[in-house]
């Protein structure tokens, strides 16, 4: 469960264990959504009047292309995360590291998913390599050089 009622947290720290996948409504067009679900574990507790602190981790896999040979591959993503939520909207407007308590119809739930979405997007690597010694593609014919030399006659400039 990644949306926790405030009254539950006020009664004592809450152990968080849940997941959300690529089909979750939190994702927006253009997001690098995960392959499968993102597993989330942690603890949510009170951090002062109208403030709540989440400390935990999430892990999953992202799909991308090798930047040299363009093969599709999965990259594991794992992050330790600390998040601060505030009931006062001005506090989250002033500080981008503070997230609003905005879940539920009256703002009486702490929905971790939007903050975790943002953390995920920051953590997923923009450029990945299938292996450190990837040879890439032939600049002339486009053959994958990892599978052996190509048969084109490349001209080299001297």
Summarize the structure in words.
The chain is mainly beta and 158 residues long. The chain has one domain. It is built from 3 helices and 7 strands. The strands form 2 sheets. A 5-stranded mixed sheet has the order 2-3-4-5-6. The longest helix is centred in the C-terminal third of the chain and has 11 residues.
In short:
The protein has 158 residues and is mainly β.
Biggest sheet, open or closed, and with what strands and sense?
5 strands, mixed
Order of the strands making up the biggest sheet: 2-3-4-5-6
Radius of gyration: 22 Å
Unreliable stretches covering 5 or more consecutive residues: none
* Strand content bin: 35-45%
Distance between the termini: 63 Å
- Report the order of strands and helices: EHEEEEHEEH
Percentage of residues in helical conformation: 10-25%
Helical stretch count? 3
- Number of DSSP E strands: 7
Question: What general outline do the C-alpha atoms trace?
Answer: elongated
Mean pLDDT score:
87
* Derived structural class: mainly beta
The number of domains: 1
List the helices and strands and how they pair.
Elements: E1 3-5, H1 6-10, E2 14-21, E3 34-46, E4 51-65, E5 72-86, H2 89-94, E6 98-100, E7 109-111, H3 113-123
């Amino acid at each position: 469960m990644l949306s926790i009622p405030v009254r539950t947290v006020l009664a004592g720290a809450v152990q968080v264990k849940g997941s959300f996948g690529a089909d979750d409504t939190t994702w927006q067009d253009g997001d690098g959504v995960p392959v499968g679900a993102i597993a989330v574990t942690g603890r949510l507790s009170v951090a002062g009047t109208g403030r709540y602190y989440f400390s935990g981790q999430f892990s999953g896999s992202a799909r991308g292309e090798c930047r040299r040979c363009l093969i599709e591959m999965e990259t594991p993503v794992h992050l330790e995360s600390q998040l601060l939520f505030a009931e006062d909207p001005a506090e989250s407007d002033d500080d981008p590291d503070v997230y609003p308590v905005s879940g539920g119809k009256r703002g009486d739930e702490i929905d971790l998913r939007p903050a975790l979405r943002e953390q995920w997007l920051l953590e997923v690597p923009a450029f990945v390599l299938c292996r450190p010694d990837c040879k890439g593609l032939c600049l002339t014919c486009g053959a994958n050089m990892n599978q052996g030399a190509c048969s084109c006659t490349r001209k080299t400039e001297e």
